[in-house]
Amino acid sequence: MLNFEVTIAGDDAYRVSWRLSGTEFAADTQVEILRSPSFTGPYETILPPSRDITDFVDTMVHHRVRPFYQIRIHRQGSDPVTYPSVSGVTVAPEQDGDIRAVIRERIRAIRHGGGRKILYYPVKTSGPKCHCWDKVSRKAEVHNCRSCFGSHFHGGFYNPILLHAAIGSPNTQFSERFRVDGQVSSAILPNLPLIRQGDVIIEKENKRWRVLGNDPGEYKRNIVRQTVYLAPISVDDILFELPADFTLLGSDAAAVDGP
Ligand SMILES: [Zn+2]
Questions:
Q1: How far does residue 132's CA lie from ligand 1's centre (Å)?
Q2: pLDDT tens, residue by residue, 57-87
Q3: Where in the chain is the domain with CATH 2.60.40.10?
Q4: pTM exceeds 0.70 for this model
Q5: How far, in Å, CA of 142 to CA of 4, rounded?
Q6: Would you say 246 and 200 are in contact if contact means Cβ atoms under 8 Å apart?
Q7: 97-122+157-249 is classed CATH 2.40.10
Q8: How far is the CA of 215 from the centre of ligand 1 (A)?
Q9: Looking at residue 124, what is its pLDDT?
């Protein structure tokens, strides 16, 4: 087995660390690291096959890109073995027990303080472009494209993630802050996954929200919860055609929302 972890190492820096054990370990083992802005690739080598190192800090990530990593193990006399990153969307920061306790406490507060299950759709901001995108004019040829829902990247969104969120009442001050007509609400969510502008949240009653921004709450420089600002999506918006499995939101069973 290869233990392989990607953690936040600073602003726009990620630390890729691994531990070789059992069959992977040999004196001639070399480790190569590859990165892609998309889970499906293509991946490019950012660290050529190297010996005797156990971690690598990647500082070359553009700040709007969620990186995906692969580790490739090279040994003499056998084919290289490639391990993909466990999850492309979630990058867990390193945490000591103290920080984990704060995060658990915040998650409990969300669940018991008006939280409910929601479907969270991370918008694609990298990877192959949708067919609606014209490379020459650098704009979409098709309005209200059903293949990318306006994101202009192939598929539009990653698969939805089930989370708990405490969605608050509309607030005029938020609307002024984001200069949006109509009422903006806020929602409290767990520390992960990191929620970004353009992501979509869907509630059980098919109420849909677009994320306008995020004010993450920090403790010892770790994000322990997120306050996101949500604009309602109107029923004539193409985002109302984003498929949603409401059976996932029906019961009160635990949602996947943190440690
Ligand atoms: Zn499209």
A1: 4
A2: 887 776 666 788 888 988 888 888 887 765 4
A3: 2-84
A4: no
A5: 41
A6: no
A7: yes
A8: 29
A9: 83
